[in-house]
Amino acid sequence: MANKIPIKAGLTNGNATSLAEFESGDTIPVANGGTGSTGGNAAKINLTVITAADGSLIVPTGNTAARDGTPNIGFIRFNTELSQFEGYDGSFWGSLGGGATGGGNDDVFFENSLTVTTDYEISTDKSAISAGPITIDNGVTVTIPDGSRWVVV
Fold first, then answer.
1. Which residues contact 150 (CB under 8 A, 6 or more apart)?
2. 7: which of 34, 81, 106, 124 lies 20 to 30 Å off by Cα?
3. Minimal CA–CA distance to 61: which of 94, 36, 89, 86?
4. Closest CA to 96 of 105, 84, 106, 114
5. C-alpha distance from residue 63 to each of 2, 78, 80, 90, 91 (Å)
6. Average pLDDT rounded to a whole number, residues 34-38
7. Do the beta carbons of residue 16 and residue 8 sit within 8 Å?
8. Side-chain half-sphere exposure of 50, counting CA atoms within 13 A
9. Pick from 58, 3, 54, 49: nearest CA to 28
10. What residues have CB less than 8 Å from 122, skipping those under 6 apart?
């Protein structure tokens, strides 16, 4: 039997009116404002998937190859290959949150990979820094627009 997860259902103006458990393959009731469709963008429903009434939000997970082929702005997922949360800004997937860490509460260290494996464009009028040496895979392009700068130390 598949693990059941609690799902807030029957939302009205964002307030949950019930908490039920469903498993993979179950028919989930469409919340107020949902479409009832089972495919594509039309399948948007007004549900929040959580691990418990006061638990965590469940986000999609997968490796880089499993990213949506035609993502919409604002998509969020956890990349198991890169071990990071990422979001889509309309042009590129980028890391979310995290940041520097250190012992205790000090934010001292930021680690970066040493190989660029996918095309990347630094945001206009922004600077980026990496600790090197950095290798850029064959066929991969790093774009640095006018007004931007990439420093490798």
1. 122, 127, 128, 129, 130, 142, 144
2. 81
3. 86
4. 84
5. 23, 8, 5, 19, 19
6. 50
7. yes
8. 13
9. 49
10. 128, 142, 143, 144, 145, 148, 149, 150
Q: Evaluate whether 56 touches 48 at the Cβ level (below 8 Å).
A: no
- Count of beta carbons in the 10 Å neighbourhood of residue 54: 6
Residue-wise pLDDT for 63-95, tens only, equals 999 999 889 898 999 989 888 889 998 888 888
**Residue closest to 13 by CA, chosen among 41, 40, 37, 32:** 32
- pLDDT band of residue 32 (cuts 50, 70, 90) is very low
Measured between alpha carbons, how far is 63 from 103 in angstroms, rounded to an integer?
Answer: 29
| DSSP-assigned letter for residue 24 | T
- Residue 127 in tokens: 């600077």
Tell me the three-class secondary structure of 120-136, residue by residue: EECCCCCEEEECCCCEE
The structure tokens listed for 141 are 């392009």
pTM of the model: 0.44
The DSSP letter of residue 115 is E
